[in-house]
Amino acid sequence: MENAAVYLAKTNDPYSGACEALDALGFKIVGKGVYIKPNLTGGRPSRDGLTVDIGLIRAVLERLHDCPKITIGDSCSDTTKAFDELGYRQLIEEFPTVKLEDIRSAKLVWKPIPRPHHTREMPFNASVFEHDYVINIAKMKTHSLAGVTLCLKNIFGFIPTRKQKLMYHPFIKKAMIDMNQVVPSHFCMVDGVWGNEFDEIQSTPIKTEVILTGENLLAVDLIAGAVMGIDLCKNKSYRMALELWGKPEIKLSGISVDDVKVSYRQGCLFSTRLRYLKETTASLLYRLVSRH
User: Fold this and answer.
1) Are the C-beta atoms of residues 20 and 213 closer than 8 Å to each other?
2) Looking at residue 278, what is its pLDDT?
3) CATH number, domain 3-289
4) What pLDDT is attached to residue 125?
5) Strand, helix or coil at 228?
6) What is d(CA 192, CA 218) in angstroms, rounded to the nearest whole number?
7) Where are the domains of the chain?
8) Distance (Å, whole) CA 33 – CA 95
9) How many CB atoms lie within 10 A of CB 130?
10) Phi, psi (deg, nearest 5) at residue 44
11) pLDDT (tens digit per residue) in 95-112
12) Which one of 113, 190, 245, 292 counts the least CB within 10 Å of its CB?
């Protein structure tokens, strides 16, 4: 198997760390239609540990040349608010060829799953398939159901509506394996300058001071997990992913994991457990009456 290059940068500044990591891997895209998928989580500041810093997006945009179509999109709890409050409106004034997409209101298309783990087909925003190149930019976080929220989980944002998300979220350990078979990530980044530990949506920031980049999603996530002190080879979703796509031979450059490794707490609040119970009930009801 070919070496999967991953660059790990230690930094206090998301923009400069992203520039360092991108340039170290020679990242430059020319003439492609590019879809950028950050994790926005309702417009929370990146220092809260929940949302990708816009500095990573800026660093990427500066390295896209003569690209006929560039879209930045997500489907968080309030994507419009996130675009407004996190500076994306101002950013696209600087990069006029870039468009913003609220995936929640986008045209959708159902796609069959080549090797189903949870379901035979799933809905996605149609526009992502009109692009040649997907850049997956995740935040370094734990997740009460999936274990972690990294690049594998970030693809969940391509499911358009809240109702459709509820159909799959309770079963996300398997569902995100299905999603990633349909939407490939051509380049991956993880913002771990500030991460989030313990619960899925509660802000419990943990300063980690890292940015990761690489073309191989699993390689990037495995290194990110190691930085978090979490062995993803023991995670059910990643075990399935490794069986499906194979374990990459990772070639790590930049700083070593031992120099930045921390210990992310994993857990789930009682209120989150109650929400999951409601979601599972709603999911089963939706699936009785909806296409899935």
Assistant:
1) no
2) 75
3) 3.40.50
4) 97
5) coil
6) 16
7) 3-289
8) 15
9) 11
10) -70, 145
11) 999 999 999 999 999 999
12) 245
The CA distance from 279 to 138, in Å, is 24
227 alpha carbon, distance to own chain's centre: 17
Handedness of CA 197, 203, 207, 209 (dihedral sign): positive
> How far from 37 is each of 138, 153, 189, 276, CA to CA, in Å?
8, 12, 10, 25
Query: Tens digit of pLDDT for each residue in 174-185?
Result: 999 999 999 999
pTM for this entry: 0.94
- Amino acid 290 reads S
Contact status, residue 135 vs residue 98, Cβ threshold 8 Å? no
d(C-alpha 178, C-alpha 122), whole Å:
8
Q: Is residue 268 helix, strand or coil?
A: coil
Say how far apart CA 102 and CA 9 lie, in whole Å. Answer: 30
User: Alpha-carbon Rg of the chain, whole angstroms?
Assistant: 18
Is 198:204 a contact under the CB 8 Å cutoff? yes
Contact 101, 71 (CB under 8 A): yes
Q: C-alpha angle with apex 151: 55 to 16, nearest 5 degrees? A: 20
Residue 292 in this model has a pLDDT that exceeds 70: no
Which uninterrupted H or E stretch holds 89? helix 88-94
* 40 close to 76: Cβ distance less than 8 angstroms: yes
CA terminus-to-terminus distance, the chain: 35
Residue with tokens 């790990």: 8
CA distance 62 to 31: 14
Distances from the Cα of 164 to the Cα of 123, 234, 271, angstroms: 8, 28, 22
